[in-house]
Design brief:
CATH topology of the largest domain: Rossmann fold
Number of strands: 11
CATH architecture of the largest domain: 3-Layer(aba) Sandwich
Order of helices and strands: EHEHEEHEHEHHEEHEEHEHHHH
Protein name: SDR family oxidoreductase
Number of helices: 12
CATH superfamily of the largest domain: NAD(P)-binding Rossmann-like Domain
CATH class of the largest domain: Alpha Beta
Distance between the termini: 35 Å
Helix content: 40-55%
Structural class: alpha/beta
Length: 282
């Protein structure tokens, strides 16, 4: 079986769709907290295994010997290490054939990287056959409110001219599918990113070009950036994490373009300009 955790999330659903395009539904399972959210997958023949990362006992039947498992990192920052540990221990007890983990670029030193690096250490210590999918940033992180950004006329950040090599979630999902269904990925570490890195001023230029409206870039201090994010309604802790990421981008920590993602998916990654047009069309 191919088992995807967190399968009802944005990345997880794309991975499941990718698997269903290549293997029978009877060979796909999802480990999720809510069976209701996965009801559409169950209706298509996907096995639904209800688990709770905070209740390790629920993971006892989540995996079976020989399963190939994708552990999509949890969304609860600050709680992910014990949650991921529970999954790793359950996978080891079951004797899975492969545990692939969606991690973070190895160059990252900002705080959000800490739990990913700790999870990699847990997996290494377990002795499980594994693959690390060190996912770079999703282009959607910047385009979730593309129309709103155009309406405001400004891309605001504190990364200066730092560059970030993004790709859409679908590209990363396709890479995960390639590792799950492919051979020879055990022990591999993939630094996954878009083919080209871009800066926030370039993002502003692409939004302006695609919309036909003026969009500029405003670089602010970290303190100003934090105030703007909190003022827009983001929780303080999440806003602080985003500002910390921008500092990492300014240091060049998300700018790497080693080409691993394009090689895994067998095609170029989707360029920023295309993603901008898609977001605005939507």
């Amino acid at each position: 079986m191919y088992v995807v955790t967190g399968a009802t999330g944005q990345l997880g659903r794309l991975v499941v769709e990718g698997l269903l395009a290549q293997v029978p539904a009877s060979e796909v399972a999802v480990a999720v907290r809510s069976a209701e959210k996965a009801a559409d997958l169950a209706a298509r023949g996907v096995a639904v295994r209800v688990v709770d990362y905070d209740k390790p006992e629920t993971l006892a039947g989540a995996f079976a010997e020989g399963d190939r498992v994708l552990l999509i990192s949890g969304s609860e920052v600050g709680r992910r290490i014990p949650q991921h540990r529970a999954v790793v221990e359950a996978a080891k007890a079951a004797g899975v054939a492969l545990l692939a983990y969606t991690s973070i670029p190895g160059a990252a030193t900002f705080r959000l990287a800490d739990e990913h690096k700790a999870t990699e250490e847990l997996i290494l210590a377990s002795g499980l056959p594994h693959a690390f999918l060190r996912n770079g940033w999703y282009t959607e992180n910047y385009l979730g409110d593309a129309a709103g950004t155009v309406a405001r006329g400004v891309v605001l950040g504190s990364a200066g001219d730092g560059r970030v090599a993004t790709a859409p979630r679908r590209d990363y999902a396709d890479a995960a599918v390639a590792v799950l269904v492919g051979e020879g990925h055990e022990g591999r570490v993939y630094e996954l990113s878009g083919d080209a890195a871009w800066s926030l001023p370039e993002l502003a230029a692409e939004l302006a070009k695609a919309s036909g409206k003026p969009v500029g870039h405003r670089d602010v201090t970290p303190a100003e950036h934090l105030d703007a994010l909190v003022g827009a309604g983001l929780p303080q802790g999440f806003a602080e994490a985003l500002v910390d990421v921008d500092a990492g981008i300014a240091r060049g920590e998300l700018a790497g373009t080693p080409g691993d993602l394009a090689r895994l998916i067998g095609r170029p990654t989707v360029p920023l300009a295309e993603s901008v047009r898609t977001a605005l069309d939507a």
